[in-house]
Amino acid sequence: MNYHSTRNSSVSVSSAQAISQGISSEGGLFVPEKLPCFLYSDLLELQHCGYTERAVRILSAFLSDFTAEEITECVGKAYTGGKFEQDRPAPISYLQNGKMNMYLLELWHGPTCAFKDMALQLLPHLLTKSLKKIQSSRTALILVATSGDTGKAALEGFKDVDGTRIQVFYPENGVSPMQKRQMNTQEGNNVAVCAIEGNFDDAQTGVKKIFTDPEINRLLEQNHIMFSSANSINWGRLLPQIVYYFSAYCDLMANGEIDREGEKVNIVVPTGNFGNILAAYYAKKMGLPVKKLICASNANNVLTDFLNTGIYDRNRDFHTTISPSMDILVSSNLERLLYDLTGNDSARVAGWMKELATGGRYQVDGDILNRLHELFCAGFCDDAATKETIREIYRKENYLCDTHTAVAVNVYQQYVEAKKDTETPTIVVSTASPYKFADSVLSAVSADYSADASEFEKVQALSAVTGTPIPAPIVRLESKKVRFTAICPKDKMGEAVLKTAGIKYTV
Ligand SMILES: *Cc1c(COP(=O)(O)O)cnc(C)c1O
C-alpha cells in the first residue's frame, strides 16, 4: 500500500518512506491510498486475541512493505516486557455512571503515564526499520514540538535508539510542573530538551518551518543527518492509535457488553491536535461499528466551533488551561480528515491550509459540513467544569480521572443531555494518569489542598486522600537529576536544532 500527500495527491511513497520522512516535502501529511476493511468475522476472531496480536493484524494491513516477522518484532518490543503495567497497554474500566453507558479506555499505563506512549513506544522501532528499508545510512534527527506529553513519551521511546537523535521543544509556561520535570530529567545520550518563549502553536509552527528550511536541510545533508517527526503528523504515530479502538471494541465483545453484530458504540476523545480522534475516524471507516465520534475540547474550543459551523478560525485568545495537552489552536491532523471528506481533493485542502497559514481562517462547503455533522458531535468545557467533573466522578463512582479525561466525561454528559442518547455504549478515552496533573486533581477532590505544597507533596497527598497507587514512573522521578534548563526565543529554534545535530553554525 502506498501513501499520498494531503497537499499533492500525485505524491506516492511506500510506508517506510512516509514514516522515515514524517511530512511530505510540500508540507502535506501522508495518508494511506485506501483503508483496509475489517468485517464482523474479523472482530469475532480478534476478540479472542491479546493486544499484541490485534496490533499485528491491524498494522499488517497498512504496512505492506514490512514482513509479518518485522511487525511482530516491533509490536513485541513496544508492548511486552513490562513497558506497560501488567503488559496490559489498554485496559477498560467499567463505570455505570447513573443513566449513562460509559467505559473508560485507559491509555496511560505506559512509561510516561500518558496515551502518547501507545504510539511512541512503537514508532522508534517502525522508524529504524523504515530507514533501513529506504537504505538510508543517515542519522534520523527527530524534532518534536510538545504541549507536554508527546515530548516525554518521544524522549522515552527514542532514548539511546541507534541511528537516532531527538530534540524536543516545549512552551516554557505551557506545561505542568510534572511534565516539565519528566522532560528536564530525561536520560539518554541522544536527547536534547529546550523550552521556548511562546505557546504550543509557536513551537509547532517553528518545528514545521525548520523541517522545510532549505539551508538547515542542506547543512544536515552534508552531515549525513535527516529530519523525521514524532508528532502526530507522522503516519507512524497515528497508525498504532487505530489499534486500541478495535481492541476496546473487541474487549467489550469478549465481556458480553456488546452482543449483536454491528452494535454501535460512541467514542469520546479529549482532543488537541486531532490525532487521537482521527485514528477513531479511520477505525470507523475500516468497519468498526461507531455511531458518533464525540470531540471534546477545553476553553481552546476552535474544534467545537469548526465541527459545528464549518468555519475554522484560529484568530482568538489562546487559553492556558489545566488540560495543557489540549491547549492548541491549530489542529494539524484535521487536514487528513478534510482530505478524506473531499474525496482526496488535495488542491482544495492545500487551498484551505494556505488560507489558514495566511489569514488564520477557512470555511468548508456545505456538503462537507453535512458530513461532519453526521460523523461528529463536539463540545467543550472550562477549567471550573473540568474540576467539578473530576469531583463528581470521584464521589459517585470512586474513580479518579485526570483533567483531560474529565473534559471528555463532561462533554459526554452534555451530549447525553442534549441528544438523550443513554442507550449507546460509549467508550471515553482516558488519556493521562491523574498523577500527572496532581495539583488540579487534588484541588478538585480534597478539601485540605494547599497550593504551596511541592508537586511531589501533592502527589503523596492525592494518594493518601484517594487510596490510589502512585504510578511507578512518577515515584522514580523525584530523585532524578535535572539535565536540561535551556530556554530559547522562538526565532532561535533552528540554531538549537543545529547544535543538537552537532553542526557548527555561524550567522
Ligand atoms: C496529546 C494529548 C491529548 C490530545 O490528543 P490529540 O491526538 O493531540 O488530539 C489529550 N490528552 C492528553 C493527556 C494528551 O497527552
Structure description:
It is a single chain. This protein has helices spanning 15-21, 40-46, 51-62, 68-79, 116-120, 123-133, 149-158, 177-184, 200-212, 214-222, 235-254, 275-285, 302-309, 334-341, 346-359, 366-375, 383-397, 403-419, 438-445, 455-466, 472-477, 493-500, and strands at residues 3-5, 8-13, 30-32, 92-95, 102-106, 139-145, 164-171, 191-197, 225-229, 265-270, 290-297, 311-313, 361-363, 376-380, 426-430, 487-489. It is of the alpha/beta class. The radius of gyration is 21 Å and the shape is globular. It is built from 22 helices and 16 strands. The longest helix has 20 residues, at 235-254. Helix 3 crosses helix 4, helix 17 (383-397) packs across helix 18 and helix 19 (438-445) packs across helix 20 (455-466). The strands form 4 sheets. It has a 6-stranded mixed sheet, with helices on both faces. A 5-stranded parallel sheet has the order 9-6-7-8-16, sandwiched between helices. Strands 2-1-3 form a 3-stranded antiparallel sheet. The structure holds pyridoxal-5'-phosphate. Residues 114-116, 149, 232, 270-276, 325-326, 404, 431-432 line the site of pyridoxal-5'-phosphate.
